[in-house]
Amino acid sequence: MEYYEAANFLFDLRRFQVKPGTDSVRDLLAHLGDPHDGTDFVQVAGSNGKGSVARMLEATLRADGRRVGLYTSPHFDDLRERVRVDGRKVPASEVAAFVDEVKPWLVDRAADGEPLTFFEVVTAMALWRFGRADVDVAVLEVGMGGEFDATSVVDPVAAAVTNVSLEHTSVLGDTVEEIARTKAKVAPADAPLVTATDGVALETVRDVAGDVVTVGDGAPGGGAEAGDGAAPDVTARYEGRVSHQEAAVSLAGDDWSVDARIPLLGAYQATNAGVAAALARQLGVDDAAVLRRGLRNAHWPGRFEVMRTDPLVVLDGAHNPDACGTLASTLAEFDYDDLHLVFGAMHDKDHDEMAAALPDPATVRTCAPRIDRAEDPEVLARVFERETGADVTAADAVADAVAAARDAAAPGDCVLLTGSLFCVAEARADWTRNELPKRVESRADAERVLGGTDAAPDAVERHVDDAVHQTVKTRVSARQAETLETAFVAAGGDCVRSGVDGGGELHDVVLLGTRAEFREALAAVEDRGDGLAGVAADLRGRVGLDDDSDADTGTADDAYPWEDGTAVMGVLNVTPDSFHDGGEHFSYEDAVAGAERLVDAGVDVIDVGGESTRPGAEAVPVDEEIQRVTPVIDAISDVDALISVDTRRAEVGEAALDAGADILNDVTGLEDPEMRFLAAERDVPVIVMHSIDAPVDPSTDAEYDDVVEDVVDELTERVLLAEKAGIPRENVIVDPGVGFGKSKRENFDILGRLGEFAALGCPVLFGHSHKSMFELVGGETGDAGAETVAGTALAAANGADIVRVHDAAENVRAVRIAAAAADPYGFEVDEP
Questions:
Q1: pTM of the model
Q2: Which residues form the catalytic set?
Q3: What are φ and ψ of residue 817, in 5° steps?
Q4: All domains in the chain, ordered by first residue
Q5: pLDDT (tens digit per residue) in 61-97
Q6: CB 480: neighbour CB atoms within 10 A?
Q7: Which residue, 57, 435, 520, 719, shows the most beta carbons closer than 10 Å to its own?
Q8: What is the SS3 string spanning 520-570?
Q9: CB 498 within 8 A of CB 453
């Protein structure tokens, strides 16, 4: 079964109405052999905040070194986001395998008049996936209610109810007490239920669950209080935001306390952090450093997410009056002039109350996400005309409404999009959409590229011989895909699009044509609305149609060496145990001499590392790593090359910059939360590597559907994280991380398709020196000099901006050969 067939089958289940109860899911899991047996589960229920708590807990458990599953809803771009293991989406191949196995059983059930719903089947898929992945613990966000939710098919080892408000009253009950009663039924058998409810909701939760751990801010009326006004078991105080990206929180229990930063703004997020910390402690996490690190890495898109400043641009998925009120309180922490509100919501929401709860806007643009349940923007406009004195406009597409609001905003203003996570998903696509250039030199290349859209085989066959000239792959909405297809065919080009037919999900499309055909097609769609102006602009830039796309924005004095061609980074490991050269430069004298040899050989950058990340390497204490690298960096800081520090710790990076380093090289891809802020504050380039484990764990079994596209997808969020911290995109260098969680063949796939990483809009580093990938062609790990040189030449020819190597002279010559071959008459000899 193909992925698009599996996805379409699942989406078709949305036509079945929600029916409370777990019997159907239990029957499906029994049919599968109860694959979830033996897995520890945590359930997180509540009216608001349950997704944030689930993410915080997952991040904390991962910081504790555990393999963790996470199940959340809804999704942004595609349904695979709902099911993650160690942060990575379930592979498309796993979705297809699951549906292939369960479809006959589900069809029989439907024929008997007992169909399962979309949420029930996807929940079963999550449990199936977690069992197959052998996770240590899986965190489940409860969909609706608790007692009769599909996730309640498990017997949790820990559980929480974040809060309770009136929601889904037709299913859960007409009063807070009724809703609290069903939510509290997630209580585990052998542990207290963690809750941040208060008042009558808390009284009900206590009555149902018995043993509870309460969380609140400890102030009168501040949560976790029943009629007796008892203080909460865990106090969670919000200390205010410390930047546009982070807030400070203070958490404390009877015998523990943690002061932490979280990447989620708003006083309510302190309470969520307290719930997550209480759950983590029940699961055995009692190290304050682990709690701090986990909470600080709990990035959760669309929850008061500041995308830009000057003007302030905020995306928030508040979808009910309580959440809108909380959003207003959080926004009040920022100073801004006029508020430009973009609002879209589902038709079953209380729009009047939501509008009343939001801050007073100067302008309002209503819109509708591409989903059947979305309310008509004209209806929403009338609501805001009644509730506010703002200038109200009914727009259509979310992206167009956001673009118009940003155009209208002055630098000191705020643009706020809210009302639905579906709106956030569409708006966010403007920051996460990539245009991958595809090299198509044969029919086999065309079949691979077109097949990668999840298109039907007959569609691939029809177009495979036309896949010539410019070929670009991107992700757009179904409606945008239809418009692009019409325009490209009319212009003489072509478009192959995904066969997935879900509501609201983004679709893969491959666009094919000459530059002239691209120009004509894009000119035809850019004024069509539906967010296509931004899509067209991005595509014009990717295929080089913008007149200013190659404009020089820097000067000779501040340009980096990779801006003028492929730069060579020479490795200088001041360690006794590093891969290939461990011990060669461990002494201070040898290190300085080694740096001089690298400069004499012509390298542009010297990468100094004080900790090995080879398989089986032991972690080095921070103080020792600093002692290893800083004296050497200080001694060589005036050489004719830039200095990079290879470290995964911000403390080491800061010390290295103080000693004279120019670049941060982070093999964990900003896993240390402080690293991105350090790079932003010092205005230095940072290398963000894609890695599954660092140091490398040979037992890691990473799964990819398409290693290049999957790595680009995962690096997209890391690059966006860096940008939101204040790092200019041109200062972010991406490293695909060959040898880190990839097979030998996958490493060669990356080498052959390096040009596709240009989609990220960042310089690309390729680090292949002497690695085990060369065993595939007869080389030897650690002693593959000739193979490394060949790889360098190919990497330079395929688009690498930087190559990282141990043997400088040979690889500098390889880069020059590639440059001469690319431009034999313009190439200039540059002797070292």
A1: 0.88
A2: 771, 804
A3: -65, -45
A4: 3-296 (3.40.1190.10), 305-432 (3.90.190.20), 436-542 (no CATH), 566-822 (3.20.20.20)
A5: 999 999 999 999 988 888 999 999 999 999 999 999 9
A6: 25
A7: 57
A8: HHHHHHCCCCCCHHHHHHHHHHHCCCCCCCCCCCCCCCCCCHHHHCCEEEE
A9: yes
